[in-house]
Amino acid sequence: GDSVTQMEGPVTLSEEAFLTINCTYTATGYPSLFWYVQYPGEGLQLLLKATKADDKGSNKGFEATYRKETTSFHLEKGSVQVSDSAVYFCALSDRGGGNKLTFGTGTQLKVEL
Amino acid sequence: DVKVTQSSRYLVKRTGEKVFLECVQDMDHENMFWYRQDPGLGLRLIYFSYDVKMKEKGDIPEGYSVSREKKERFSLILESASTNQTSMYLCASQIGSLNTEAFFGQGTRLTVV
Fold first, then answer.
1. pLDDT at residue A95 above 90?
2. Which of A43, A51, A102 lies nearest to residue B99, judging by beta carbons?
3. What are the start-end ranges of the H helices in chain B?
4. pLDDT tens digits for range A26-84
5. Which secondary-structure segment (H or E) carries A65?
6. B45 and A102: CB-CB below 8 Å?
7. Distance CA A99, CA B3 (A)
8. Residues of A with CB below 8 A from B106's CB?
9. Which of B17, B32, B68, B74 lies in the 20 to 30 Å Cα band around A72?
């Protein structure tokens, strides 16, 4: 079945540091890929998405590129802020699975001054 | 503005009680989902629904049931609550087209004592 593997946290960075959170996936079909973010005390919200190979999703300075050859969708940001502290979830939606999302375990990011 | 509302933020119930978690969306979305979120396990799908009165089991349906009598409302029912159902429960809704984002409620933290 479908699955998503993402790097374990917590990840602690200094403000303005470069961020990478690794995500790899296994899917039987041609999935769409998503990054969701969960700020403390809130539900999940979509950060970015990519629907086909080589697509790049971007939002709020975050980027991720859909790499079919390596089955990866790594999240990057060039300069993190304290306000980026949150839990980040990688997810996929497989067309054959009827649009439901399969999530990774989440990576907690803490950004310090 | 898009809104998914879960009826309670926090609930404390006793073992053996029948528990109802309610979720309402105001976006006329076809798809609705119930997930539970546990540390180190990410989000796991309990049940989902593509239309009124339709439901499908997710990855961990045991001990749960659902009801969707109206398009905007999706209820999760714990038939006889147990301590291992203590968790954060997240509801989501999604338009029926492929590759679309899911919108999440703020979550219900359920404690079974």
1. no
2. A51
3. none
4. 988 789 999 999 998 888 999 999 999 999 999 999 999 999 999 999 999 999 999 99
5. strand A62-65
6. yes
7. 20
8. 41-43
9. B32
